[in-house]
Amino acid sequence: MVFKMAQATDDTIYMVILSGIGGTIIGLPLGILLYCTRKGHILDSLFINGLLSFITNVFRSIPFIILIVWIIPFTYITMDLLTGTKTFLGKQAAIVPLSIGVAPLIARMIENALLDVPKGLIEAARSMGATPLQIIYKVLLPEALPVIINSMTITLITLTGYIAMAGAVGAGGLGQLAIQYGYQAYQPVIMNIVLIILIILIFIIQIIGNVIVKRVNHR
């Protein structure tokens, strides 16, 4: 059981890291576009902003446990294309719904982080002839970096909870261990140990996030 607990913890960390990266790949550009296409901003477009907001809100409103089941066909196809494995179960397959599930959260947090950047800095960059891309990479992202890091910390903590739920549908990790050996086998000790490990992981993520925020915050 100790080996299974260690393996489940390792699988959980694996899924947190990779799905965090996957969610960021989707959510970061989406959040930037949500901000930039707002009325009066550098890529002002009511239509694009409305469309992106609608898509983001739709996926944010779907409970994660339902999302996993809903996109099983997409997960199956994605796994077949990327790994040649025709499955929607296991830690690798779980990264697909986890990334999609957390991407809208990341997008909204990135958008809110960019909204905190003083408009004077953006106008100053505009007046000096900076392109929208230069404003994003040289003004918006550097200025909002501490808030973005803090948002990513929250995202990883949220993913830890998502992964625990994903265990109910065969994703592996600590969630599946708790359900299979704790709940179904009527062993509350295992359930309690899993909870303690999850709490420790969340504390570690929060501490690392706080340290990084302090290092990048030059205000």
Automatic annotation (TrEMBL):
Top-level taxonomic group:
Bacteria
For this record, an example GO cellular component is: plasma membrane
Q: What is its main location?
A: membrane
Q: Which InterPro entries match?
A: AA_ABC_Transporter_Permease, MetI-like, MetI-like_sf
Subcellular location as annotated: Cell membrane
Specify whether S-adenosyl-L-methionine is a keyword of the entry: no
Name all ABC transmembrane type-1 domain ranges.
9-206
Pfam families (alphabetical): BPD_transp_1 (PF00528)
**Protein's membrane topology:** Multi-pass membrane protein
Keywords assigned: Amino-acid transport, Cell membrane, Membrane, Transmembrane, Transmembrane helix, Transport
Give me the segments passing through the membrane.
12-34, 46-72, 147-169, 189-213
Q: Does the keyword Transmembrane apply?
A: yes
Q: Provide a GO biological process annotation.
A: D-methionine transmembrane transport
Q: Which family does it belong to?
A: Belongs to the binding-protein-dependent transport system permease family. CysTW subfamily.
**Function recorded in the entry:** Part of the binding-protein-dependent transport system for D-methionine and the toxic methionine analog alpha-methyl-methionine. Probably responsible for the translocation of the substrate across the membrane.
Provide the protein name.
Answer: D-methionine transport system permease protein MetI
